[in-house]
Design goal:
Structural class: mainly alpha
Distance between the termini: 50 Å
Largest sheet: none
Helix content: 55-70%
Oligomer: single chain
Number of domains: 2
Mean pLDDT: 89
Shape: elongated
Number of helices: 7
Radius of gyration: 24 Å
Low-confidence stretches: none
Length: 222
């Protein structure tokens, strides 16, 4: 599942390191690896939240800067960086939506933010919405334009629900794939990358739908 990323030799004594602290001199080491690995989890979309919290709190205590006030400047800097890295990983994995966005970034690379280009499947409906929005901007009391936008609002809300259902199914399929592939991988497989590509496309559709619905709600509210 994961690219192996072993620790380099200890920065202080240059001896072999097998964890967060040097076995020889005890010096704290910089955290390495993705957020799932840092918090002891497989790269799944349904996670054990209790385990996540327990691991996070246990590691937070070990890296808390207060414990390094009498250590060298290097160890103090590493403890601060580790604490920040750990906090960011925890915030990302605790939230289901951010967790999926992070997984997509981890597997597919690129920016986490979703594009908001018009999906071709929605093009005709979008043109009707844009026309009604233009009419409403010019004539705020136009009843036909308002009726068009209310109908579009219902349609796009339904579409958003469909996309969310598709994402839930893709999430379950991804976790099944991870379970079938086993815990150790040199790299992401083509099948895993294909599942993530489908997730990414669905999230981009949802991001665009959210933007359209926000625009409709703003226009009708005005």
């Amino acid at each position: 599942m994961f690219q192996e990323n072993p620790y380099p030799p200890c920065w202080q004594c240059r001896r072999e390191v097998t964890g967060h602290f040097c076995d020889a001199c005890g010096a704290v080491q910089p955290l390495l690896g993705d957020s799932f690995r840092l918090l002891g989890l497989d790269a799944r979309l349904q996670i054990d939240v209790l385990r996540l919290e327990e691991t996070f709190h246990a590691l937070s205590r070990r890296f808390h800067p207060d414990f390094y006030q009498q250590k060298s400047a290097q160890e103090q800097a590493i403890s601060l960086e580790n604490a920040a890295t750990l906090n960011a990983a925890y915030r990302t994995l605790k939230d289901p939506d951010r967790r999926m966005a992070y997984l997509i970034h981890l597997v597919a690379g690129g920016a986490v933010e979703e594009k908001t280009a018009v999906p071709t499947a929605f093009l005709d409906e979008i043109l009707d919405v844009e026309e009604a929005l233009a009419v409403l901007r010019a004539s705020p009391d136009d009843g036909v334009a308002r009726s068009t936008l209310r109908a579009a609002q219902a349609v796009f809300t339904s579409r958003t629900n469909e996309v969310n259902q598709a994402l839930a199914a893709l999430s379950a399929a991804w976790d099944d794939q991870i379970a079938n592939d086993g815990p150790v991988r040199v790299d992401w497989t083509p099948v895993q990358r294909a599942w993530v590509a489908r997730m990414k496309a669905a999230r981009e559709q949802r991001a665009y739908l959210d933007r359209v619905l926000s625009g409709i709600a703003s226009a009708l509210g005005a």
